[in-house]
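Bit of a strange request maybe. I'm writing a small parser for structure token strings and I need a real example to test against, not something I typed by hand. Could someone generate the tokens for this chain?
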Amino acid sequence: MKRWMPYFLLVLTLLGGSVAQGAVPDPVDPRESVNYTFDQRMAHTKQLHAKLREASPAERSMYFDKSLEAIKKLSPEERRDLSEKFKSQWKKLTDEQKKQVKQEARNYITSLPDAERKELKRRREMLLEFMSPEERKHWP
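Reply from user aminoacidic:
Good idea to test on real output. This should exercise your parser:
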């Protein structure tokens, strides 16, 4: 019985790890998310932020790595087209809706530890690499 205990504990640990990793969903393909309505996008964002708050820093990092990879997989033309669609959708939002989006982002970011906030800022700067010089002007 004692010989099997370490193996049993190892199996439990591995199962627990796989369940914990399942807590954070895979990022949505940008080609799909561009078609979300405002309400769908807000509901998805709130749900995602709730799951990311519960996740470990490593899981959050893994999620953002996957989302960056999803963007890298797109061709430059697809990125440009999706960017234009997102911009046109943003322009169509009411001021109240824009405030909701910004507030949700602020709430999520302020809920993170300082080190992770700095990491998010670094990752955001990485995303700027995919933008044209004209697009970068609009990002603070």
